[in-house]
Design brief:
Chain B: Pathway: Pyrimidine metabolism; UMP biosynthesis via de novo pathway. The structure holds 2 protein chains of 2 kinds. Chain A is of the alpha/beta class. Chain A contains 5 helices and 15 strands. Chain A has 2 domains: 15-107, Translation factors (Elongation Factor Tu (Ef-tu), domain 3); 119-275, Nucleotide-binding domain of ferredoxin-NADP reductase (FNR) module (Rossmann fold). Chain B is built from 8 helices and 12 strands. Chain B is α/β, with parallel strands linked by helices. In chain B, 34% of the residues lie in helices and 19% in strands. Chain B has one domain (9-278): Aldolase class I (TIM Barrel), CATH 3.20.20. In chain B, helix 3 runs parallel beside helix 4 and helix 4 (169-178) packs across helix 5. The A-B interface holds A 8-10, 13-16, 53, 57-60, 102, 104, 231-232, 234-235, 237-244, 255-256, 261, 277, 281-283 and B 14-17, 20-25, 39, 47-56, 59-61, 63, 65, 68, 195, 204-205, 254, 256-261.
Chain lengths: 284, 279
Amino acid sequence: MADERGPVDGSHPSVHVDGEVVATKRVGGYRHLTLTAPGVPERFRAGNFVAVSVAGHVARRALWVHRVRASSAFGPTLDVVVEARGSGTTWLAAQPVGARIAITGPLGRPFALPKVAVSCLLVGEGYAAAPLFPLAERLRERGCAVSLVVSAPDEAHLLSALEARRSARSVTVLTADGSVGQRGTVADHVAGLVERSDADVVYAAGPHAVLRSVAAAAERAGAWSQVAVETPTPCGTGLCHGCPLPVVGEDGVERVVRACAEGPVVRGDRIRWDALPDALGQVL
Amino acid sequence: MSAQLPGPVMVAAGCGGTGRELEPYAGPDGLAGLDLVTRSITLDARAGGPGPRVVEVPGGLVNAVGLPNPGLEHFLATELPWLVRAGARVFVSIAGSTMGEYADLARRLSRAPGVAGLEVNVGAPDEVGAALFEVREPYHSASVIAAVRREFPTDRPVLAKLRPDVSRIVEGARSCHEAGASAVVVGNAVPAAFPDGRAGGLSGPAIAPIALRCVAEVHRALPAVPTIGCGGVHDLRSAGAYLDAGASAVQVGTALLHDPTTVARLRAALALRALQEDA
């Protein structure tokens, strides 16, 4: 697959700006925030993330971008999905309309897009499935057949399954407790899903275990895989080297790269999964 | 000939990435004219330590990143030329597991075009964990500085980056200065532990009062020794506290992780303050 994502050297420079919350909405177990962040939506590509500052905290919070609008009553905006899990995300989820938030972005290397119209399977779990939605739109614009799988422990943590039908040819819903859609986890169903979709490229976003099972299934089916790795990124900008991601390079040499700068999207077959801790760490 | 000292604002070691990551946030001139200390460079490449490498605590971060760097050879071939082309004044932070490694690094960097000076990392919060030359006594750091100074031209500065330990800092600064350090950087991350007990270093606003006390003690005892304040600098006020305490410059580290534009804003604010003082 052609890798036209651009280098890591700032040729598509990110910006650090004062953003504003222009809408906030509770959807199931998540809070969806719509933000203005001058310059960020314009530069965004699916798979990029943003880092936001949280009052009283030194480390940044990295957030996936769920949607970008080129124009609205507030100008260009971006939507992020927040699950309140710690003091930082709880603070973010509580920000009202009008709140100012320092935002850096877009950050990281986005999903690589196929040059020709191919069949694509997108698999996401929980709030971390967010970057698959703008990806699905880009793929559809390119004429790709998009099958989307959204998964969650339960219905409240299922992200945007209804909206997904706009840009995907087929949508499969999985919940671990069977509260909606098919019962089971991604690991339970992924082999059959990859086979049925006849995908040339498989994209995944979610916890490490989900990414790993998707990458393995793609490998077995002879498809390319691209996974969006979520790991705590203390700065998000590549400055601190605090988000180690163990990989194997194109040259077969084992390396540790930065999830924020060389990722968050990497080829699934490049990750040394056994060296990657499953826990998401302490930055919440 | 006296070495031209950097300042008044520098990028602290380990907080500017390779320089490229900082460039988009460095202001209209990019890195041009910016005093930048690189992450610590070792003779051989290091992959860095296991995760989590950085954990947030109230007022700061606990880190044990493990000095990931591509090794001197690769640094000289790729990262240094880029930084020089970008116009940065490059101070290379060096770290070694023996005195001989420090001397080797200094000798080879003395011949590399575009190196404005060296910063010798002799106060890491956990040298043993990081497999670095262990500095327990002031003469340990002084002997490293002497070994570096012998290999590096006297018209370019050698900075000694010391641990902000108030009971040892004056003695450490005195012996490093006598060994040839052009200035002392006070200080490094404060020895600390992660919540799980692993050794690391505490950085950020929480350590500013500690480093400030150290700068003040050094300046009082050794007014002729230039000091560079480092620890919790994030705005005009926190930088001004160090400068008022006698520091000739400040370094910005952890604040860049929170807001990558910090150095650009602080340079502009200090330039404005200087103009106003002149007027």
